[in-house]
Design goal:
alpha/beta; Aspartate Aminotransferase, domain 1; Aspartate Aminotransferase, domain 2; seven-stranded mixed β-sheet; four-stranded antiparallel β-sheet; 15 helices; 13 strands; Methionine aminotransferase; PyrdxlP-dep_Trfase_small; kynurenine-oxoglutarate transaminase activity; PyrdxlP-dep_Trfase_major; pyridoxal phosphate binding
Length: 375
């Protein structure tokens, strides 16, 4: 008897496997293919010879926790107490899983906004709780009337993802105000804010829950060094939450992971002294703009991208196939892998949209675009 009978192999695994089998350019999974900053690799090489290979304290390497608190303060003018309001995790996914396991109970309901990243539902189901999937509008703006209508006395949590994967949308001021008004009407609901792409925004910065006192006092905020420093394989993230919520989250964390990779924590702690966070969004905006320029002569329609390193495109002018079949044919006939957006919906809603990852070196983007312009 399966505890997750309807959970299958993720679409990311499927498309990456197909890409490898057909020697296609993989723009499906969200990982960069360019080198990590040499400053960081040099720090790792030096620290690897030092006494940094045993368990760190359960909540995190103390110098890193201080640096994270300083980063949150510098970025959002929020003061957090490292000992009671911060937890270093084995990636953002573990932070999300641990938070849901700690705070969601049997028969609770959790509102998830579709299209949604695929790591939210499984931990909800493992709590014997129910994911209530509420679709965004077709332009990927939030329909707050529908979201409020989905809230009941059973609603324990609302999950938002800002900047949003897969769509690249960010919530604007009116969205945040609507969220504040909603949570004021339902004072028992906890907010889980997945902000892993917080430092990859473009014309407008995202409005973090960290900056909103009305929200942050009942919110868990998820961040990712893997996304910020394009070191996804390191699996290092962190969680910020008020003390009363963090106590429960730590109870699960200590038996799920106990402590996170010591060398990685120490290296990031030192690296934070020498890296400019502000340059990250500039770097990725150049990638976005270059990729969009390369695709401008294609038959794909480019959807606005406000943040993340994903570009959603419509292929309506090319084919009326469903998006899964189109993505498979894109691999087999044209040698480029993408992700179908329908997989991010509970009901498989298909708007003939697919997602490319542009966190690649220019040569990869150029060759991918050359192939896509021939579709």
């Amino acid at each position: 008897m399966s505890k997750l009978p309807n959970i299958t192999t993720s679409i990311f695994t499927v498309m990456s496997k197909m890409a490898a089998e057909h020697n296609a350019i993989n723009l499906s999974q969200g990982f960069p293919n360019f080198p990590v900053d040499e400053k960081l690799t040099e720090i790792v090489a030096r620290l690897a010879k030092e006494d940094i290979h045993q368990y760190t304290p359960m909540a995190g390497y103390p110098p890193l926790m201080t640096k994270i608190a300083n980063l949150v303060n510098r970025s959002y003018q929020r003061n957090i107490e490292p000992e009671t309001e911060l937890l270093v995790t084995t990636g953002a996914t573990q932070g999300i899983f641990t938070t849901i396991q700690a705070l969601v109970e049997n028969q609770d309901e959790v509102i998830v906004l579709d299209p949604s990243y695929d790591c939210y539902e499984a931990p909800i189901l493992l709590c014997n709780a129910k994911a209530i999937r509420v679709a965004l509008n077709d332009d990927y703006t939030a329909n707050w009337e529908n979201i409020e209508a989905a809230c009941t006395s059973k609603t324990k949590m609302i999950i938002i993802n800002n900047p949003h994967n897969p769509t690249g949308k960010i919530l604007n001021e009116s969205d945040i105000e609507a969220l504040e008004n909603l949570l004021e009407k339902f004072p028992e609901i906890i907010l889980l804010s997945d902000e892993v792409y917080e430092y990859i925004t473009f014309e407008e910065k995202h409005i973090s829950v960290h900056t909103r006192p009305q929200l942050r006092n009942r919110a868990v905020v998820i961040s990712s060094f893997g996304k910020t420093f394009h070191i996804t394989g390191w699996k290092i993230g962190y969680v910020v939450a008020p003390e009363q919520l963090m106590k429960e989250i730590k109870k699960v964390h200590q038996f799920l992971v106990f402590s996170v990779n010591s060398l990685a924590q120490a290296a990031i702690s030192e690296y934070l002294d020498s890296v400019s966070i502000d340059e990250i969004s500039i770097f990725f905006q150049q990638k976005r703009d270059y990729f969009r320029e390369l695709l401008s002569k294609s038959r794909f329609e480019l959807i606005p991208c406000e943040g993340t390193y994903f570009q959603v495109v419509s292929y309506k002018a090319i084919s009326d196939e469903n998006d899964v079949d189109f993505c498979k044919r894109l691999i087999t006939e044209h040698g480029v892998a993408a992700i179908p957006i329908s997989n991010f919906y509970e009901n498989g809603k298909d708007l003939h949209l697919i997602r490319f990852c542009f966190a690649k070196d220019n040569a990869t983007l150029e060759e991918a675009a050359r192939r896509l312009c021939n579709v």
